[in-house]
Amino acid sequence: MKLERYKLITVFLLLLVPSIVLAEGEAVSDAQQALKDAAGFAGFSVDPAKTDIYQVAANWINGFLSVFMLFFVFLLVSAGFSWMTSGGNSEKVSSAKETIKNALIGMLVAFTAYILSRYVLLALASTTGINVT
Question: Are 52 and 121 in contact (CB under 8 A)?
């Protein structure tokens, strides 16, 4: 029953919020301008004619892998904190060691994915003559 309520609230918000935003004519243009400003600040090209698919792919991959790495850094720090506050409890220490090991493996996988995706994107860019940073 509780899950159904959350589903209903989620669907309601997903339908209500866009309709409220779209109902305001000036608010939409202001929101679009704010999104363009934020995209320009983040390094994305605001002009659709200058936006290249390789640049967009590189930005998405780099952003995703950055979030992925931050997640593993959070796991690493929280496991270290758990280990330091375990008070000698062997179960907590072994759990923290296992979490640290898994977080380091995850970071290695994410870093390897970053290196491979960077290599592929740069190889595609060099063969097509597109500048991917």
Answer: no
Indicate the domain borders of the chain. 1-46, 52-133
Q: Supply 89's token pair.
A: 């409890």
- Could you give the C-alpha distances from 65 to 62, 92, 112, 117, in angstroms and in order? 5, 29, 10, 10
Long-range contacts of 17-22, Cβ-Cβ distance < 8 Å, separation of 24 or more? none
Among candidate residues 85, 79, 83, the one with its CA nearest the CA of residue 105: 79
- pLDDT over 70 for what percent of the chain? 60
Tell me the two tokens of residue 109.
């996988």
Cβ partners under 8 Å of residue 130, min gap 6: 52, 54, 55, 124
Predicted pLDDT at 45: 60
- Report helix angle 25-42 to 2-23, nearest 10: 100
Q: Cα 96 from chain centroid?
A: 25
pLDDT, tens digit (0-9, with 9 covering 90-100), for 29-61: 666 677 677 666 666 666 655 566 777 777 788
